[in-house]
Amino acid sequence: MTDTFDPDQGSDQGSDETTRRGSARRGFLRGGITTAAALAAAGPLQALSARTAGAAPMAKRAASPDYGPLYPVRDETTGLELLRLPRGFEYLSYGWTGDLMSDGTPTPSAHDGMAAFHRRDGKIALVRNHERGDYDGAFTEPAYNPAAGGGTTNLVFDPDRGAFLESRASLSGTIRNCAGGPTPWGTWLTCEETTEIGPDGTRHGYVFEVPFDGEGDPAPLTEMGRFSHEAVAVDPRTGIVYLTEDATPSGLYRYLPRRRGHLAAGGELQMMVIETPEGGSYSTYTDGTGVEYRTSWVTIPNPDYAPGETRPAEQGAALGGAVFTRLEGAWWGNERVYVVSTSGGPTGQGQVFAYDPRAERMEVLFASPDASVLNNPDNICVSPRGGIVLCEDGSEGEYVHGLTTDGEIFPFALNQIVIPEGGVPGKSVAPGDYSGSEWCGSTFEPRNGNWLFANAQSPGITFAITGPWRRGSL
């Protein structure tokens, strides 16, 4: 979400909020919350937790009762049936790999994480990641590493006309920019999902900041840690940044900035502790729906570790930090941080956690019981109407799922991208079947949510989707 606050209000976090490593609270709780009404009031994931806590099996790939089943829909740009959507929904594609942007730069490949920002003129600004891992040269300057081909591009969309207006390069010289997250002060934090060392010795594995209306800063935010970053979520009240790590074992981190809204001014990186009677590092790998935890935090001694030194997750685990399997998507909403483990849970098909920073509690709101219900969820975002969008990174069809406010999960969109022999006029994308490409970067228009933006990573396409949203929770 893109709620705003004054970044200059206050300059530090109180010691009781920034360091909890000395807390002595021990013990963790297993089990669900008692009433479905309380869960539904707290949000759709809590309501889903209530639904899956019983013995009754969930419907598999059931159509939404509000939006209906999925049908092939033609792209307003190319005329191809690239997506399946409920009746009444339409979309246009933009920014295909190789398309010339407004600044004359070819659109980079490997579209990934993305966020939308409202501009004062009513237009929508988007910042989009490109998860490129090649050392074939930066696509814009200034660049962090001139040899590295990853980075970000910025787009402008007119929601009234339903048209993309412009696009341009905004940051390059990075590697494998996977996800990230928006900040309340109008920037995008783009994350390198790697700890690779470039051919010239340049270290990667950092977070960079990109304004929605300007060029990104090619200087990495080193105090936010060097690891396989995936996504971030920002508490708008405190300015604390929560960070996920796509690795196993991985940690859930928070960055305590010295000044809210001024991340480059430095801060402290901490890793979550799940408190147990025995102490020590706790593993969440196989925990199912309804497991609840008490939490605290430990400081990472050496966040910007060098080759041959101990990586942050292992530093934190040695101090009692909890370990997860492949933490990916993160989002702030309902006064909580929602975090996705792509391959966690009893079936290995994914978990969704919710962390309440005020109460220092976290719970497994949902663990997928079967791949046909939810198959390795990745990206997560919250609709202005209260529902949740989950993107899959699985193997049984690439879906975007919706989750209603009363806990029903349903398929909303299906990737059926097939580029015919002979290609698409005006596009440089090669013919082929791209229906197995993962969805990335789902984000709603921040003001009224009339448009949902999302990327198909390969062949690299951005979609703008609109329709009768108010028939349901999305």
SSE order and pairing:
Layout lengths: L14 H4 L10 E2 L5 H7 L1 H10 L16 E4 L9 E4 L3 E5 L16 E8 L5 E7 L19 E9 L4 E12 L2 E6 L4 E6 L14 E5 L17 E6 L6 E5 L7 E5 L9 E8 L16 E9 L12 H7 L8 E7 L2 E6 L9 E6 L4 E7 L9 E6 L5 E5 L6 E5 L5 E7 L2 E2 L12 E2 L5 E6 L6 E6 L4 E6 L8
Antiparallel strand pairs: 1-16, 2-3, 3-24, 4-29, 5-6, 6-7, 7-8, 9-10, 10-11, 12-13, 13-14, 14-15, 15-16, 16-20, 17-18, 18-19, 19-20, 21-22, 22-23, 23-24, 25-26, 27-28, 28-29
Helix pairs in contact: 2-3
Please, could you describe this protein's structure?
- With 474 residues, the chain is mainly β.
- The chain has four helices and 29 strands.
- The protein has helices at residues 15-18, 36-42, 44-53, 312-318, and strands spanning 29-30, 70-73, 83-86, 90-94, 111-118, 124-130, 150-158, 163-174, 177-182, 187-192, 207-211, 229-234, 241-245, 253-257, 267-274, 291-299, 327-333, 336-341, 351-356, 361-367, 377-382, 388-392, 399-403, 409-415, 418-419, 432-433, 439-444, 451-456, 461-466.
- The strands form six sheets. Strands 1, 12, 13, 14, 15, 16, 17, 18, 19 and 20 form a ten-stranded antiparallel β-sheet that branches.
- A hairpin with a 4-residue loop joins strand 9 and strand 10 (187-192).
- The longest helix is centred in the N-terminal third of the chain and has 10 residues, at 44-53.
- 54% of the residues are buried.
- Residues 1-42 have low confidence and may be disordered.
